[in-house]
Amino acid sequence: MNMKHSRLISTAIGLAMAMIATAQTTLYDCQKWAAENYPLLKRYELLLATTDYTVANINKGWLPQLSAGAQATLQSDVMSLPDGLKSIMSQAGYNVKGLKKDQYKVAIDVSQTIYDGGSIKAAKQAARAEGEAKARQNDVDMFAIRDRVNNLFFGILLAEDKLKLNSDLQQLLLDNCRKLEAMVKGGTATKADLDAMKAEYLNARQQQVELSSAKNSYVRMLEIFTGRQIEQPLKRPEATVPDNISTQRPELSLFNAQTRQLNARSAQLDAAIRPRLSLFAQGYYGYPGYNMFEDMFSHDWSLNGMIGMRLSWNISSLYTHKNEKRKLATAANEIENARDVFLFNNRLQTTQERMAVERYRRIIADDDEIIQLRTSVRQAAEAKLSHGIIDVNGLLQEITRENTARTQQSVHEIEMLKAIYELKDKLGIKN
Questions:
Q1: Which of 410, 417, 419 is nearest to 371 (CA)?
Q2: What tens digit of pLDDT does each residue of 357-409 get?
Q3: CB 352 within 8 A of CB 282
């Protein structure tokens, strides 16, 4: 093979390795995909649309307000001319019929707000504040997905490590089975010794099936969460502890949004006690009209109308204004209390996670040495078995202890990673 072909092969291998590395799924990928796939994401669009519709409807308060109606009445009495005046007019040739007791009206009223005391503006602010508070609550609900994704992701990582260790264990047991087969042929070991080693090997194969099944279940659940096919093996996240200890959780934004919502309600209360000024126009077709004197002589229907300016002030709003303000102040205190409780519990949780990370760091520091010692003891046991100093059970015990030490190291490493990313979640730090 010439140098040119060698370089081409090396390049192809490098590209293939790069593609494999690129295809690895990260924890951040899973969290992002799960957020995009979760049905709650669609709620943002619904909340935004609802808020827009509400604000648009409130804005229509500045449009002229129209109302139409009709009425027919029968009265017990109506206005009439004094008898003396009626007699004089009759002598003068005027037929005074008087007003009829049955009266009819088809009317249209038009009103245009000029000054509303800030009610429309306050109502729009309240609608937007309510929409924002609901969106921030949705942020909190969406954030909870991260914990479920983390558990599945690290469960897969641990299953992958255990499968690798199981593969190494099977190879070790298989190698010892071959050695024992040779020893049985040479008469230095019994068939029972070989059977014991084979039984342990088969037991390891059963564990592989169980681990594979558990891993596949985790992968399937993660794929359902993310709506994506999970490329394996997963990329192990970095074990970097965040330096920033300030909380960036979405709950804090929710508390702020709830406070702004209360402020908007307070502005609505203030607007409710201010006077309103509007222009109006009224018109109706019916009987009698505004000129009732003429309608005493003729019972014909007529068109009638008026325009004017109206000032209104709902003084009764002052009765409850102070208590409503106190209710809002109490609600604001409840929000601040909830914020303090959340921050207190969050500090406790972050402290626990930091202590857990440090505990695992100290434990992991000894794992390598423990594995080296267990490996050395196991290798010595293999040599002793070859010389007939110990039996197979003694070797199997040392193999089990070595495998346990390796498994414990893997568990400690995954648990430390999980604690680090649980710490990040408690702080609200994006991975």
A1: 410
A2: 999 999 999 999 999 999 999 999 999 888 878 888 999 999 999 999 999 99
A3: no
- CB 117, CB 271: distance < 8 Å: yes
Q: Is 380 exposed, middle or buried (0-12, 13-18, 19+ CB in 10 A)?
A: middle
Query: Residue 23 has what pLDDT?
Result: 62
Burial class (CB within 10 angstroms; exposed 0-12, middle 13-18, buried 19+) of 356: middle
Helix 27-37 with 41-59: angle, nearest 10 deg? 50
CA distances from 279 to 63, 119, 201, 315 (A): 12, 17, 95, 20
